[in-house]
Amino acid sequence: MEEEQAPDAAGAAAEQTFNEPFSVIKQEVEIEVNFRDKTISGLSTLHIFPVEDDVDEIWLDARQCEIDTENITVNGVKVPAAFHDPYDLMEAPPQWQLGVGQHHIMRSRMRSLTHDKRPDLPIVGRESQILGCVPADRSLRIALRPEGTVVKDEPGKIKIKTSRADKDSTEDKDLVKVAIPFRSKRVRDGLHFVGVDDGDSRYPHVYTRHTPGPGTASCIFPCVDDQGSRHPWKVSIKCPRTLGDAFAQPLATQSATLASSGANRKRKLGEVTSSPPQPHAAPMVEEDKLKEITVVCSGNLSGEQIDPQDETKKIMTFECQNSAAHHIAFAIGPFEHVDLWSEFRTEEADEKLGANAAKVHGYCLPGRTDEVRHTCAPIVAAADYFAPEFGKYPFESYKVVFVEDMIQDTAAATSMSLCSTRLLYPEHVIDPEIEVTRKLVHALASQYVGVNIVPNQRSDSWIVVGIQWFMTDLFMKSLCGNNWYRFHLKTMSDKLIDADVNRPSLHDLGHHLHIGDFELDFMSLKAPLVLFILDQRMSKIPGSTGVVRVISQIVSNANIHTSDPSMTTISDKEFRRACEKRSQYRPDELWDQWVKHAGCPKLSVKQRFNKKNLNVDIVITQTQGTPKSKTISKEEFWREFQEEIHSVYAGEVPKVFTGPFTIRIHEADGTPYEHYQSISDKDSTSLSIAYNTKYKRLKRTKKAQAAAATTSGDKQDIQEDDVIYFNMLGDVLTTDKDVANWGLQDWSKDVQLAMDQESYEWIRFDCNFEWICEMTTDMPGYMYLAQLQQDRDVVAHQDAMLFFKMYKRHGVAATIETRTVMDRRYYHGVRTMAVEDLPKQADPDLNYIGLAQLVLCFRHFFCDRVVGKGGNITFPPAPNDFHDKAQYAVQSAIPLAIARTRERGRCSKDGRNFLLDLLLFNDNSDNEYSDHFYVAKLLEALTTSLIPDKVDKNKDLLSTLDEYDDDDAEFKRFILKTIEEIDKYRRMDEWTLTYQNIWTTTALTCKMKLMKEHVIPISPLEFVQYLQDDNIDLVRIKAFECLVELGLLSKTPILKLLLSHISTDKSPFVRDRLFKVFIRGIAAIALGENKAKQPEPQVEEDEFGLIVDQGDAEIQQRKLDAVRKEDITHALHALKEEIKGNAELPMIIWRAVESPIIGLREKAQLLDLCSAMFEPELSMLVTLNYPKYWTASRVEGSSSAVNVDQRAKQKPRCMVRFSQVYRTKPVHPLPVAAPPVAELPPPPPEPKAPEPKKIKLSSRPSISGSLAGGPLPPSPLARQDSISVTTPRPAAPATPAAAISVASASDSISVQPIARLSTPLAGTPPPSSSLAVGPSPQPNSTIKSADRRPKAPKKRKSDEGEGADRPKKLIKTESGVNQNINPSTNGRSKMVTVPFRAWNRLPARIRQRIDAERTVRASSSTIVATPVSKRPGSSLAGTSGAGSARSSPQPANSNGGSSSGNKQRKPLPSSAPHPALASVAPPNGTTAPAPAPKKIKLKLKVPSQSST
User: Fold this and answer.
1) Secondary structure of residue 511 in the 3-state scheme
2) Which distant-in-sequence residues (6+ apart) come within 8 Å of 805 by Cβ?
């Protein structure tokens, strides 16, 4: 145990967040890469400068590596050093036997490796405050002063005596040069090797992995893993020259030469054959063996040479300036180079940019250069846009390297970016181009801000992330247009309103970025929007230049002062100050509301026209102060849980948001008037805006007449006060024929009358987009129609479509949306929104007009009109033509909308057949672009059309369809035809290889949806067949996702297979995606989506046959289900209850936790998941070895073989044999404190033979039967009592029979007929003794129940003269009729039962003995009464607890009731319980003692001597 305390102590020291009193001036790293062993080794040299006096030692960072501490040198002199690998904390010591219940032990053990324990020291001011640097782990301690070599000459300077050979060195003596040899071991993080393992046929390459926080760079080489430690670097990498050299696979010619040269030579005696090393990868073809390996690294290439010691290797050296350790990246592999800047930049642009032109290089694996050219072409345009707009590119060149298995899509490093090959797409694929381009441009923008300019503190991270995406979207605006830019911002704004609920503020979010990528995604969503509204508010002020000029100034200062931390860092305070200098706007309120606080405002706007004052009165009310409960979805479950355990608190939402608010009123003459207002800090803001036009209303009829006159050329009907609108949007399908054919409607007369009474067309609130808010207005629908048709802003169109989306079903709304789709002047995003809302109009009240209009729209644009021979008109789909990408977006959206239409609970027959025809007659032969995505969308549309609104979840729909019903038979044939088409395209994908196998993944998704909605039976084999390692990663991930969505995670084989891939797959991307799939499955269980099928509750009926309603229980269960979806704590509690009975799940998950392949973050996530699923156990099994000691024993010699004379001549000697044994007992017995002894009752006295008692019954017959005749039974035999009694009592005197025949409430002895006890009762203990008295009744005698009335008991004389403390003993007798009479008693016998009252005091062995002798004692004819100890005021009728369980039950009569003379007594309080039962049933009137506090138990498991 002492050996394991060192890492834990060091980890605890790392949590104290010390800063080191030195600064790194320069670092040189020499790395040699071994592909076969997947290891790296080399030398890391740091030039440090102490910032304090008398620095004796320094602390550095190093992980998952072996440090040669004996050869660490300081200025060429070996010094003592100590190193412990922090990654050793990820593995439990071999003595510990942990399970899933000890997850908290492993979490606390790995706590020092987490990011939340790191300090947050600012970068600026470290030199003035003498802070130095902050290592992440402090795992490597190096002494700077070897013994006998350190002298102190001047304060603040350290000089080390060196040899004379070093005296001529020109190195600065103020610096300390520390050289550290290292070698990696079992790489988990920091590096990733691809194509090296067996079965991996991809091209071998290796690259660095990066995370947002520190800790990754130290996994590669020793350094100071601090984001604030920025200095120059020199990196030298030694690698094989070719792939054949990397895996020791020589060419065929070289192999033949080597074989022929040594074939004829015989091996000499003792000579060992030298066989070439065995390759670690599959044999390569000759062409691949010759592929040259290239190194792409941060910085500029300064040298390349062949290794002088091994000609199969080469050394490439790179140098870069002012970089942190986590921004150093490299990639090594057979990359092909693409000179992007020379191919895509014209000479004119090159001359215009001059020195500001950035050189862009692309690197990819062999065979993908064309994809790189097509995918990365926008990067050159982005570099040319950023240079004049924001400043010169900060480095000499920019390198983009595409590698396999990256978790994130891009990773930014100094002068280069690592990108995933998933981003590459060929020229004929157009669907992912905007999304991929935006990601690649963001990687370039990260070079300006994020790599060259870094945040000063974690809380400043939002500025860096916001500027990156702000720059990216500005370039995308120049590339895609202003409509795309504003539509994108509005879409992101609506998404932020839904996401920013119970989330931290931007200022606080920077401290939690290490928790998960969901925090960075939220920051990437909100930060650029905040900068956009800041730019909008700054631009309104005259003379302001906006945020763009502020960013340009920051970039320029950083490029000029590269070594000044104040210029290369950015902080919240400095950025706000720069914004104030560039404009007259003071962003204090914006910073306080949008940066320091959380949430988005919710505005309720009401407007009306004041005819008296000719003003427009507007009232704005904010309602964000009343938050609504948000339901937790499966996608948000993991985020909610992580924020719960990491104490991420929701930010405070301002009660009132303030700021400028622009209102644009489109008055009756068509002129827009903008009014700059502001929202005050009151709950409600009232605005009064003057009306400008002289017209009070504008009649719509005049506008229509003007438009008709304009089109016909007749302008005589136009009046003077009419306003003519030219080029109004949505003015299509206006003829009477179109209106009739398309089923279009117009406003009713009442609505038109209200329109004529309006004084303005519409009002645009926040027309300058200065607010990110949810706004609701009371404007009527016709005003939104005017806004949609007459406003030129795409955001106004989007707001209008959002209104109609929330609008109820109406024929006019269908008309508006249809005309919007048909007008190609609208932005395609607005047209797509109209398409997506039209299925709502397919309602029986509207005669399913929405479906007909969708079909007509598709026929108009994308079908040919063909007239047949008989005059039949058909509309076959036209050949695909995707040159117009806006039309392609609408063409892809209409089939999905048709599939969502419903008619009597199903998609109509016409709609389904129309979709099937689109797929069957799809023609892409003449199309320049691929139809992979289009076919996938058609398959999704067909799948959606098969899902009805209501299904029977107990059976699949396909098996319940009636074949004799025409509709069901047709629907069944259509289902089978659709499944056939899905399988056809799935098989085609195996031969044609679509882009990222999208047909296969779509087919799996379609099958999963049909199975989940109970349309077809569930068949797991449909997905399991794609889980093989030979399939691409995206297909395997999709197969697992489908299995989990179907609720098959509860199946043990599927669970084992999924967790096995999560913990053993070689690809970190696959492990990450599969873990997210597993989390979705766990979330479905926690939220009650995939609950185990509960048995049907039994229907209760009352005595009249009516069913008892269980409504309360059902309502309570629904409440619990609702609560678990709103509160994460209730969801976690429900999750633990759901999986409580699964015995295999803990072992499977813990096996995944102990995997040696997963990294730090993956293991931490699995441990967090264990804490959510299982309760911690406060015990642990530890295996300890016996201590050893030596024993000495004398060896007896063979004295018999030596005679006396020889023995006398020999010298005396003693042979001792030493042996090692285990010590199993302590040398000196240790005093052990006796455990507290529970209070026990006093021990009973020695047992004495009780005196036999004789009970004499009078010959007088009782009411139960005759007692006359027959001899008396013999006297009871004296025997040793088996029950010890406390105080024996003398036998009671004989009493008359009349007194015996009456029972009292305090009787302890009852006389019953032996016929009633002929069969022993299992739960009844045997009586202490028995006595048969009196004659038994005749067999044929019968007694009426009415005659069985007890007589009044006669008072005994002893009752009058004795006190009340004396216990009384009454005997109750009764007789009954029984045919089974014991012949030994001549048919006349009675049994006297004496119940025992202290059964709970008996030991277990005595109880067992009594039970074994039950039959013998039951047949005994005599009893030995053992009276109970005297208790004043208590009756002896019965006992509670164990004694009552063993008392004899009263016999029942033949009618099922109790006997008339034998009433059942109530149990009385028993005496003190047995100590063993005290904790189970405490006595009445007392409370159970409080449980002792839980303590961790260490169970010591001692191995056997042989195993040790």
Assistant:
1) helix
2) 833, 837
**Does residue 170 register a pLDDT over 90?**
no
Burial of 1104 (0-12, 13-18, 19+ CB in 10 A): exposed
The beta-strand segments (E) located in 93-132 are 96-97
More confident of the two residues 374 and 705: 374
Strands 176-184 and 39-50: antiparallel
Are 333 and 203 in contact by the 8 Å Cβ rule? The answer is: yes
**Inter-CA distances, 416 with 207, 394, 1061, Å:** 12, 12, 32
Rounded to whole angstroms, how far apart are CA atoms 537 and 387?
A: 25
| Spatial separation of the C-alpha atoms in residues 213 and 222, rounded to whole Å | 17
> What is the pLDDT, as a whole number, of residue 353?
86
Helix (H) or strand (E) segment spanning residue 754: helix 749-757
Q: What is the mean pLDDT of residues 459-464?
A: 95
- pLDDT-based confidence at 130, cuts 50/70/90? low
User: What pTM was estimated for this model as a whole?
Assistant: 0.78
Alpha-carbon distance 1418 to 1402, whole Å? 20
Q: Is 672 helix (H, G, I), strand (E, B) or coil?
A: strand
Q: Which amino acid is at 1265?
A: G
Length of the chain: 1508
Using DSSP bridges, classify how beta strands 1179-1183 and 96-97 pair: parallel, antiparallel or unpaired.
Answer: antiparallel
Backbone angles phi, psi at 845, to 5 degrees: -65, -25
Q: How far is CA 127 from CA 147, 224, 324, 588, 657, in A?
A: 30, 16, 17, 31, 41
Of 1302, 1282, 1299, whose CA–CA distance to 1423 is shortest? 1282
* Token pair in block for residue 567: 């210029």
The stretches of 921-1047 forming alpha helices (DSSP H) are 932-946, 957-960, 966-992, 998-1012, 1021-1024, 1033-1045
In this structure, the dihedral spanned by the alpha carbons of residues 318, 322, 326 and 331, taken in order and rounded to 10 degrees, is -20
Q: At what angle do helices 885-899 and 828-837 cross, to 10 degrees?
A: 10
Region class of 1348: left (phi > 0), else alpha (psi between -120 and 50), else beta:
beta
What is the token pair recorded at 1024?
A: 């399991």
Q: Which of 56, 29, 63 is nearest to 137 (CA)?
A: 63
DSSP H/E element including 972: helix 966-992
Copy the structure tokens of residue 411.
């990773």
For the record, the structure tokens of 717 come out as: 């009907």
Longest Cα separation, the chain: 159
| Cβ proximity of 130 and 106 under 8 Å | no
Which stretch of DSSP H or E encloses residue 833?
helix 828-837
Tokens at 1489, concatenated: 């003692």
Reported as a pLDDT band with limits 50, 70 and 90, residue 66 is very high
Confidence of residue 146 (pLDDT cuts 50, 70, 90): confident
Beta carbons of 826 and 797 less than 8 angstroms apart = yes
Both structure tokens of 556: 């320029």
Q: 172-209 as b/e, with b when 16 or more CB fall inside 10 Å?
A: eeebbbbbbbbebeebbbbbbbbbbeeebeebbbbbbb
The string of pLDDT tens digits covering residues 794-848 is 999 999 999 999 988 999 999 999 999 999 999 999 999 999 999 999 999 999 9
Write the DSSP symbol of residue 325. Answer: G
Over residues 990-996, mean pLDDT: 91
1373, 1257 in Cβ contact below 8 A? yes
- Compute the half-sphere exposure of residue 1201: CA atoms within 13 Å on the CB side of its CA: 3
**Within a 10 A sphere around the Cβ of 993, how many other Cβ atoms?**
12
Please name the residue that has the structure tokens 């998704």: 1005
- pLDDT reported for residue 999: 96
Amino acid letter, residue 1146: P
Residue 1215 tokens read as 């042979």
d(CA 175, CA 580): 42
Running DSSP on this structure, what letter comes out for residue 1239? Answer: P
Give the C-alpha separation, 1080 to 1041, whole Å: 9
Bridging pattern class, strands 65-67 and 176-184: antiparallel
Give how far the C-alpha of residue 765 lies from the chain's centroid of Cα atoms, to the nearest Å. 40
| Residue located via tokens 């970039």 | 555
